[in-house]
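#help-structures
NK: newbie question, is this the right format to request a structure? protein is TetR family transcriptional regulator
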Amino acid sequence: MSTSGKTAYHHGDLRAALLSAAMEMLEGGEPFSLRAVARRAGVSPTAPYRHFKDRDALESALAAEGFRDLLDGLGGGRGLPASLPDLAEFAVAYVAFALRRPALFRVMFGKPCDGADDERVKAADALHQLLADALDRVFPDADAEALASAGWGLAHGLACLYLDGKLRAASDEEVAGRVRGAFLALVSVGA
């Protein structure tokens, strides 16, 4: 800001613009730095530091956004699963999200949550709570924590196997069928 009467540059929602630019770069496969994100957003190179202390903080904010998007995709405005097949659709939606947004998925799960980052922790906790509530509804007498770990591990493992090219499928329907089948097979073994 100069003393000649000019007002300081003001961006309507700088944080949202930076996150949008970073998400575009991430999902487009472009390497990014705070400087590159600022350039993409059309702001000064120092502007990102108003919201993010470093690249890790920006990645953490992207991960929080990803957790919220995944939560929306799993919840989708519908109620909690009431049956085993409904629960299997959670696993299908989880894997579909990973395959649709692989770079974001890797950012979400590539590093441990930083307990000091409230936004990311809250977003991850909301996802875990949805899963726990769903499992408790379908299996009220089961060890919910153990079952949540098993279900999440299966869905996450399948997502990673597809992302890493260890499992291949000709279509989204084939992926969904394999995920659904694996989930139902695992759960029915214990029944």
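mod (FA): yep, format's fine, and the tokens are attached above. Helices lie at 14-27, 34-41, 55-75, 84-100, 102-109, 118-138, 144-163, 172-189.
NK: thank you!
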